[in-house]
Each structure stands twice: as C-alpha cells, then as structure tokens.
Amino acid sequence: MPLRKRDQPINATDRSNTATVQKIITEVLANDQGMSFAKETRDLLIECCVEFITMISSEANEIAEKDAKKTIACEHITKALEELGFNEYIPDLLEVAQQFKSQQAVS
C-alpha cells in the first residue's frame, strides 16, 4: 500500500484518525507521562501513527474480503499484524480486545 504524500489531500478517515491520535498524545502521553512535544515532533508522530493505522486497516480489510466478510473483526487485525511482521503487538491487542468485551458485557 503506497503511503500518502504530503501534498495529497487528507480524506475523512485520515482526518478522523489524526484527531484520535492527537487526543491520545494530549491525554495519555502529555498528561499521564508528563511529556511535551514540539509542534513538528507532534505532527510527525501523528503522521506516523495515522500511516500505521491505515496500513493495518487496509491489510485487515483485504483479509476480511478474502474471508467474504464485510466487517473487519479482531481476527482480521491479528492476521494483518502477523502478515506485516508486527507479531509482538498481538498479545496486547488480544488483551485489550478481551478487556473491551468484558466492559461491554457489564454495560
């Protein structure tokens, strides 16, 4: 999957991902960890995160389509991480997915 060039327009999904990553940086890293970022550093970090999310989502979407599914499931994300060489993220992903399921069961 080709990466978006800086001069290409940002689509709605990228804008949403950017807002989400910016919120994480502000609320988690800045507040909880006491980190501060120069604007250029924050923008670069956001851009890298959005590219990563887009890459994983695209791969997971292809896997879901091969499985004749219209919705990306956790198993598709797991397989995408494997296929792209990010196996070390899978245990954390599965743990967070289980926590989410547990929270949903309580609600």
What is the compact description of this entry?
The protein is mostly helical and 107 residues long. The protein contains 4 helices and no strands. It has a single domain (12-106), classed as Histone, subunit A (Orthogonal Bundle), CATH 1.10.20.10.
Features:
globular, Histone, subunit A, disordered N terminus
Structure write-up:
- With 107 residues, the protein is mainly α.
- The protein has a single domain (12-106), classed as Histone, subunit A, CATH 1.10.20.10.
- The chain is built from four helices and no strands.
- Helix 2 (39-66) crosses helix 3 (74-83) and helix 3 (74-83) packs antiparallel against helix 4.
- The chain is globular.
- The relative contact order is 0.09.
- Residues 1-9 have low confidence and may be disordered.
Secondary structure tally, helices? 4
- The CATH C-level class name: Mainly Alpha
In whole angstroms, the N-to-C terminal distance is 38 Å
Task: Evaluate the radius of gyration.
Answer: 16 Å
**What are the low-pLDDT stretches, counting only 5+ consecutive residues below 50?**
1-9
Largest sheet: none
Helix percent reads: over 70%
Reported CATH architecture: Orthogonal Bundle
Mean pLDDT: 83
Spell out the helices and strands N to C.
Answer: HHHH
CATH H level, superfamily name = Histone, subunit A
Shape: globular
Structural class: mainly alpha
CATH topology: Histone, subunit A
Could you tell me the strand content as a percent range?
under 5%
Number of strands: 0
Number of structural units classed as domains: 1
